Each structure stands twice: as structure tokens, then as C-alpha cells.
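INTERNAL TRANSFER SHEET
From: sequence group
To: structure group
Subject: Transcription initiation factor TFIID subunit 4-like protein

Please process the attached sequence and return the structure record in the designated field. Keep the field labels unchanged so the import script can parse them.
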Amino acid sequence: MTVEVSQDDDDINDVASMAGVNLNEESARILATNSELVGTQIRSCKDEAFLHPGLLHRRILETAKKFGVTEVPMEAVTFISHATQSRLRTVVEKVSTIAQHRLDSCKDDECYEQSADVRSQLRFFEQLERIEKQRKDEQEREIL
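Return from structure group:
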């Protein structure tokens, strides 16, 4: 049996040996250090509901009765609570990104010109709308 060593493995070994590190010794040391963890049972933390389970269960039952469902298991309540937490986290992250974007200053960017004259800005947008409408009308005439 032959073992092929790839170029990447050679590069890693070369760099490690230049640094004075013996990879075999380091692997043995890591395994020896963590040997007490082998075979141990890892327990996860208690699953805590984001929303109050009693109130949420009652609210879900009220909604479910409108559709003819009379029973809702507590697992469903837990899933809905976790989904709500996840959705709320996503929305808060997006709002945070938007708020940060609003704080970013465009004053320093030479592509933007700061103006306080709202009337001239509105006239400019109206002119753009007229030009766009004329272009669309011309395209419709060409099609006809």
C-alpha cells in the first residue's frame, strides 16, 4: 500500500517544520489533553421559550378554533415561539443595517451634491418623469 502526500500536505509540513513544530507531537498532545472528554455525555441547556407558553397556547387555540382545530400540542407552541424569536432577530438585524446605512454620510462622496432647495429638486424629478413618459410614448408609437 502506498500513501500519496499531496502538495498541500507537503507545504503544511514544511511551514510547520520551519516554525519548529512537530505535527505528530502536537496531535498526540491534543489527544492526550482532551482524553478525559472522550466518552463523556454532553448535555444541552434547557430549552427556554421566547414567548410565554401559556399565553401563546391560549392565543393559538383561539385562532385554531376558527379553522376547526380543537387541540394544539405544546411542541407546536414551542416551535412557534422559536420561529417568532428567529423572525424577530432577523427583522432587528435588518433594521440595524438600515439604521447604519442612514448614518453613513454621503457628504464626502463626490458623486453626490448636497442641496437644501426642495423646489428645484421636485422640478428636476418632474422633468425626469416627463422625459420618461415621452420616451415610453415614442416606443408605443414605434410598436403601432
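Handover comment: Confidence is low (pLDDT under 50) at residues 1-5. The chain is about 65% helix and 0% strand.
Transfer complete.
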